[in-house]
């Protein structure tokens, strides 16, 4: 499996915007191809990236209950459905998980999807996963091995608390996490200090991204924030942060330390 970057946090903090900035950074440095997984039921990462989706994996799961043609196995049916759900773009492919389970048993479909998604991920050197708001997807099929975990918050107490809770929960799951950072987004004036619980959990791995009026402007105009200019404050801040992350990664690789 490739290098996995997973983004989580409270809703409304700019989590999906950060996911788009990560994809943009990787593409700009020719770190591709990338598999982008939209694991948020409120599917909108495609809007940030400026691409269209036709179907989701949850739609495929629903269709498996009633639409498998006679003579076709469920595995083959789901393989075809996954291929149809995969959106191919320049340098990256996007697949959307869609809404969570509804009434009824989805065990067979989920098992097949998990296996197919694992196989798909093995074909990409970089994976970017935008999780749903909250903590649920960290214990589902998309999260097994995370190289870089980015927990996004705004400067609010509720956002910071949610990020801390996710970080604590992840420690108790059978998931390997290489590096973990708290990104405090939409910051106008950085505080002189962070709450004690935030410092205890994240230590020095706290990064601030500035409030950028262009984000609101692009959203209102229906323009993908993926296309923000290179000199936009949030683009510059995210690039500087990721430059540091990957330079440290390269230094560890050079010294023989696993990342």
Automatic annotation (TrEMBL):
Instruction: List the InterPro entries.
Output: AAA_dom (IPR025669), CooC (IPR014433), P-loop_NTPase (IPR027417), ParA/MinD_ATPase (IPR050625)
Highest taxon above the source species: Bacteria
GO-annotated cellular components:
cytoplasmic side of plasma membrane; cytosol
Q: Where are the transmembrane segments?
A: none
Q: Return one GO MF term.
A: ATP binding
Q: Could you tell me which residue ranges the AAA domain spans?
A: 9-171
Q: Which GO terms describe its biological process?
A: negative regulation of cell division
Q: Per its record, how is this protein called by name?
A: CO dehydrogenase maturation factor
């Amino acid at each position: 499996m490739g290098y996995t970057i997973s983004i989580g946090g409270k809703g409304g903090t700019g989590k999906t915007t950060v996911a788009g900035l990560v994809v943009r950074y990787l593409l700009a440095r020719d770190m591709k191809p990338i598999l982008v997984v939209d694991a948020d039921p409120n599917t909108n990462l495609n809007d940030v990236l400026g691409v269209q989706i036709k179907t989701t994996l949850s739609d495929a799961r629903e269709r498996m209950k009633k639409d498998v043609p006679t003579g076709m196995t469920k595995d083959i049916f789901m393989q075809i459905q996954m291929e149809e759900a995969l959106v191919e773009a320049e340098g990256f492919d996007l697949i959307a998980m869609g809404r969570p389970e509804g009434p009824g048993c989805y065990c067979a479909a989920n098992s097949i999807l998990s296996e197919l998604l694992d196989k798909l991920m093995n074909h990409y050197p970089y994976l970017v996963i935008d999780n749903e708001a909250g903590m649920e997807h960290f214990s589902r099929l998309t999260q097994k091995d995370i190289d870089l975990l980015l927990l996004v918050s705004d400067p609010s107490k509720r956002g910071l608390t949610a990020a801390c809770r996710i970080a604590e929960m992840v420690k108790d799951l059978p998931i390997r996490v290489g590096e973990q950072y708290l990104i405090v987004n939409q910051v106008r004036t950085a505080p002189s200090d962070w709450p004690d619980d935030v410092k205890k959990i994240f230590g020095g791995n706290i990064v601030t991204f500035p409030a950028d009026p262009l984000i609101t402007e692009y959203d209102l105009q229906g323009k993908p924030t993926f296309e923000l200019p290179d000199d936009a404050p949030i683009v510059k801040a995210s690039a500087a942060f990721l430059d540091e992350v990957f330079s440290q990664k390269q230094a560890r690789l050079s010294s023989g330390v696993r990342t």
